[in-house]
User: What shape does this take?
Amino acid sequence: MAYEVEAPKYVRLAQTIQRRIEDGTYPPGTRVPSENQLVQSFGMSRPTVVRALELLKRDGWLESRQGYGTIVRGRPEVVEQQDRRGREALNRDESQASGRVVEVAEVPVPARVASALGLPKRAKVLMRRFLLEDDGEAVELVSSYFPAGLSDGTELASAEALSGGVRKHVEARKKVRYDHVTERVSARMPESGEAELLGLPDGVPVLSVLVIALDASGQALQVSDVLLPADRQELEDTYRLN
Assistant: This one.
C-alpha cells in the first residue's frame, strides 16, 4: 500500500508565501503581513506561522529589519543547500519550542554514537529525547547523547524542558565551549519507538542527521541524532556552473 503524506503545515504555508512573492503579491522591499494577519488569513497557529517565516528567512526570501519588521527580499539569486538542523537542535530553547521532552534515561550508547564520542561499545550515556511538533503533528525527533562526565552537575537528566537551549546550559554549567559541528546525513529504518513517536506507518524510512558537536580541540561534547520522516523531506540545491 502506498502512503501519501502531506508536508508539515509550516512548510505548506512557507510555500504559499513563496508563491505570492514570485507572483508579485508580496513585492520585494515591502513588508509581509504581520504574524497576527497571517494567523487570521490562513487559519494556522502562531507557532506554525513563526516557523514558516523562519524557514523563508533561512532560505533568503525574507529578512528582518530592525524597526521595519519582516521584509521581502525576492527570489534568491543562488539558493545554497545548507542543512542547519544541527545548529537548530543545539540551540533550541525547549521551554519555548513547540514540542516536548519525551524521554530522559541512561542508555547503552548506540554504535553510531559511540564512534563519534570515542566511547567503547555498551558504555552508558545520558540520552535526552525531544519531539518537535507542528499543530500536534510530529515533525522531528531529536535524541541527544552526553558522556557521563559532561552531564554531571547539569540539569540534563531532568525531564523538564530546559530554558535557553541545551548548548547554552552545558556551556554555562560545565565551562566548556562548543566550537564546531560535523553532520552525517543518512537514511535508515526507524526503531519501533522512533516510528511510534513520529507517527510513521510500517516501511517508511527516516532521514538521520547525526550532529556531532565538538570543542576547539576536536573533543566531542554531544551527539544528537535528528530524525525526519523521509517521505516528507525534499532536498534542493541551486549552484552555478563555471
User: Anything to note?
Assistant: The beta strands are 62-65, 69-72, 99-108, 124-134, 137-146, 180-188, 206-214, 220-229.
